[in-house]
Design goal:
This protein has four helices and nine strands, in the order H-H-E-E-H-E-E-E-E-E-E-E-H.
Length: 194
């Protein structure tokens, strides 16, 4: 029955559940009192499905953000009227500290066991592969080479190119390599945000 992965999953869930509960309470506090009774409040789960606030658990939330991305891009691209031949779509989601890659070919691909941060997780989730660091992952120059992360530059001050006295990060390297085009970014960076 694979007792070790199930035990690790239970421990991860027990650790995350109080944090999820705090998050849901904080989220709901931004609305009128009793919002849970007035509207259907659902959260995306790692398997691409939705759970109501009372059923949402830590182990089901681990990859909920990237799972929401897969659900979103599947409807925005694969099912779009311009994709007449229903060609498969590859998702590339670079966040602050990780880059997640996935594919959609008409069906959501699920896995039921994976390793995340060294823990074996036994729970249904969409097949998402974390392949690299994200744009906010810090760069360190050591022994003539750049080392990536695991520290993050954060959103504020952010990478050096934000011009807010931040830290050298993947985003800076991408800018110097010409992979980012500054004129397409909003005028929110620098001390005067211009």
């Amino acid at each position: 029955m694979k007792i070790v992965p199930r035990g690790q999953t239970t421990c991860v869930d027990a650790y995350l559940n109080p944090k999820i509960d705090d998050y849901i309470r904080s989220f709901a506090s931004g609305f009128d009192k009793g919002i849970e009774d007035k509207v259907n409040l659902f959260f995306m789960q790692s398997d691409g499905g939705l759970a109501d606030a009372k059923s949402f658990t830590g182990v089901r939330a681990i990859l909920s953000g990237p799972a929401g991305g897969i659900v979103g891009y599947s409807y925005a691209t694969y099912f779009h009227k311009l994709n007449k031949n229903k060609k498969p779509v590859i998702g590339f989601d670079m966040g602050g500290t990780s880059t997640d890659v996935s594919k959609f070919d008409g069906d959501f691909e699920h896995i039921f066991e994976t390793k995340i941060a060294g823990f074996q997780i036994t729970a249904p989730q969409l097949d998402i592969n974390t392949v690299a660091a994200g744009g906010g992952s810090r760069l360190f120059f050591k022994n003539g080479l750049f080392k990536v992360g695991p520290e993050s530059a954060g959103a504020d001050p952010g990478p050096v190119c934000y011009r807010k006295n931040g830290h050298l990060a993947i985003t800076d390297a991408n800018l110097l390599l010409g992979r980012l085009i500054p004129k397409y970014f909003p005028k929110i960076f620098g001390k005067t945000q211009d």
